[in-house]
Amino acid sequence: MEPLALILIAVAVVGISIIAWWIGASNNFHRKQIKINESLSGIEVALTNRFDKLTKLMDVAKGFAAHEKETLSMVISMRKGMNIGELTQASAQCDQLMARINAVAEAYPELRSAEMFNELQRGIREAEAHLQASRRLYNSNVTMFNTAIAVFPTSIVANAKHLQKAVFFEAEEAKKQDVKISF
Does the pTM exceed 0.70? Predict the structure, then answer.
């Protein structure tokens, strides 16, 4: 074989390898973005589940405490398309509703002993655990995506595609403070 033919074959192999790598890296970014969207949907499902349980629990609490009607006035719209900031705000509103429900339970000891109330509280604990797992999964997917954007050589593809780092799901400021317990 002639040296020129060998050089052309080598250049073609290198060119095809670079193109294949570029397509693979680009597809990996698409997969990571899909995983982020999927895990964000998991957070939405967990928030909706928690809200549904809180609503049912509040209905039970209302049966015991009729004057607590304004507590349920906070209705959260759990619709697809919320950005991470809106999801954080919705989560905070559910946390406030849960605090009100616990206050009602403390004010009405007979409510705490009701079987339905206890069952719903167990369900809420499970929903909270699921929500936390969903948040961890989302943040894990964001970490993988952001790492791929930042490290060489995939950063070349990320820069060419103008990809931006994804936003982590973070706790609101009030949750970052130390908890004060007094007896």
Answer: no
